[in-house]
Each structure stands twice: as structure tokens, then as C-alpha cells.
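Quick one: structure for this chain?
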Amino acid sequence: MKFQLLTNFLLLILISSSPPSNATSPEPVYDTDGHPLIPKQQYYILPVIRGRGGGLTVTEHHKSCPLYVAQEKMEVNRGLPLLFRSVNPKDTAIRLETDLNIEFAAVTICVQSTVWRLGDVEGDKGTRFVITGGVSGSPGLETVSNWFKIEKLGKNEYKIVFCPSVCKTCKVVCGDVGVVSEGGNRFLGLSDVPFPVMFKRKDD
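Got it. Here's what it folds into:
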């Protein structure tokens, strides 16, 4: 009898101390068709709010490389397709609030990667723009500026944020990625106003 009680007591402790099975699995990010975003699949990042431009592309800002990430001026233009890569290469879906690389699936005039990274402070306003030339993978101190996250804004809309957690000893300035209008272009950069987006799978 005492043995049975001891066995039940130990079993109860084991069950109560076990973490939930979904504790380390945030919700997937879904595309406009209701399917989870998949690594290696190409998507367009499109604005939720209509009438303020189209999808995302790259453009010159200082007449030199690297190229800057910007929004197409015409709503009908979807821009360039993009790839998403999770910090965990074993992930089969892109998930909320998880470090990831974002990369344009395109060739540009600059001889460098099209992986997104957060640039240095620029101008009198101290803007930090999203630019290209980042490194995919290799999470850590040297690549901390290359990692972004996707967070949910509403039922069918998301926002992109910069708040990497790939370097525990790094002090980073977290913020929403929004639209920064300058010189007739709609660049992406850190902003007090997030850029509501959705993800449209690129047709094969």
C-alpha cells in the first residue's frame, strides 16, 4: 500500500513539473490564404491599408550600395518576392515573435546579399533604415542587426519588428518597422507607427 502511494506521489510530481507541449512553439504566421508561412517558399509583403502604396522593393538612397528597403509607390505593384528563414533551421513554419532573416528573392545591381539588416543612425532625425547586405544565419553578436520578428496586429494583419534575441549579451534598441517618407520614397525603418502587412504567397 505504501509503495503504491509513493508511486502515485512521484507520478503526480512528474506530471505537474512537465512543461506544456506547446510552450516553445509560438503560433505560425499565416498567409492571405490561411496557410502557415513556409521557409524557402516565396511571398510578397503587402500593405493592409490600401491607397498608400504597394509591396516592397529595393531602391537607392545615397546613389550607392547598399540598397534600401522601400514600398512601391503604386498600389498595383506587388514588389519583389521574399524568403523567410527562422533562427531554428529545423522549423517547418515561420512563427510569431521568433528571430528570422528576411531576404529578397531577386538579383540587384549591388554585388551583395539582399538579406535585410538594420542600418546605422542617419540624419538629423536619427533614423535607422532597413537596408540590404545582411548575413543569413549564424545568429550571434556579429549578425545581430540581421534578425527581425513578425508580431500579430489584428485578425489578419501583422507587423515586422526589430528586437533580436540571438545575442544575450547585446544591448539592442527594439522598435516597430514602419514607413519613413523621405525624398519622395517610402523607406522602411524604425518608427513609432508600425506598418500593417499581410503575406501573399507567390504563384509558381
